[in-house]
């Protein structure tokens, strides 16, 4: 009995000591701001809303606009010469223009008594000297001076045609020049887009097969082949003689087909992520998960990008490396603060007005 009594006393003493030393159970905690972030990497194919314009049998192309410029519907973009066109036609035109120039020089030399002609010649000289000064470093707009110089030269040409309209030799040369221009134009075709957009004279051969009308049709395996540089076979194929003249990229939403390295990840359709496109000048855009497909050991995530201001950065890009970042703003509470109520998870909030239960969505339990 003494042994039992001693053991009981020791147990009671141990419980007292533990209660005194151990901290009390915390019944309340403050809600804190938290965040959940993740990063996914992979290979990707860029899909733009673009149209390529082609022609069979091309010998020469003259571009009317700058590479990467914004063009409007119906605006002249390029003049294409068919395969039957010969450079001899240009030589003939150049000979006529050389003869016109020499005849004009002769007439101007004899125009000492014509004040208007002298004034026009003086304007051309002044503009030419101004261009020379700008080239040598004088501040100013060289492009603007070039425009002004072209204008005064044109004014002089118009005046000479009117003044010397009865000069038979000059008139004949003008007629020969015009006839030759018409002959050359019979070999040409003017190209203009049927939509507004950014113009580019560089193509990669994927425009017809990989576009906004077809990207949903490709499996992960097929996208992998596109990433590796294989052009898919389609019902619409270019002939072997076809030459790509230019393409127009519409300023509309575009798509990134991402082959994700984290194959076990399950994307959330409709959720927006930060997409980093790795290139010489990295581009970051917001991308929305449109859909995803898991097959053939690959995870294909179709991402829709609404930011059209970044189109110039992906104008020449087809295959690239990407990083997809997820950041979700959240609140953090101790795990034991989660209570079940009628099959739903929630916490009991303590406020000045009392305590009440509110439902929550647990996105991470650490």
Question: Main sheet, how many strands, which sense, barrel?
Answer: 6 strands, antiparallel, barrel
The spatial strand order of the largest sheet comes to 1-9-12-11-10-13
What's the end-to-end separation, in Å? Answer: 50 Å
Radius of gyration: 38 Å
Low-confidence stretches: none
Mean pLDDT: 86
Count of individual helical segments: 6
Q: What proportion of the residues is helical, as a percent range?
A: 25-40%
Total strand segments: 16
Strand content: 25-35%
> Helix and strand string, N-terminal first?
HEEEEEHHHHEEHEEEEEEEEE
Structural class: alpha+beta
Tell me the overall shape.
elongated
Characterise the protein shown here.
- With 366 residues, this protein is an alpha+beta fold.
- 30% of the residues lie in helices and 32% in strands.
- It is built from 6 helices and 16 strands.
- It has helices spanning 2-21, 88-109, 115-135, 142-163, 168-185, 220-227, and strands at 32-47, 50-56, 58-63, 70-71, 78-82, 188-191, 197-200, 242-249, 254-260, 272-278, 283-295, 298-305, 319-332, 339-341, 344-351, 354-359.
- A 6-stranded antiparallel beta barrel has the order 1-9-12-11-10-13. The chain has a 4-stranded antiparallel beta sheet with strand order 2-8-7-4, with no helix packed on it.
- A hairpin with a 4-residue loop joins β10 (272-278) and β11.
- α2 packs antiparallel against α5 (168-185) and α3 (115-135) packs antiparallel against α4 (142-163).
- The longest helix has 22 residues, at 88-109.
- It starts with a helix and ends in a 7-residue tail after the last strand.
- The mean pLDDT is 86.
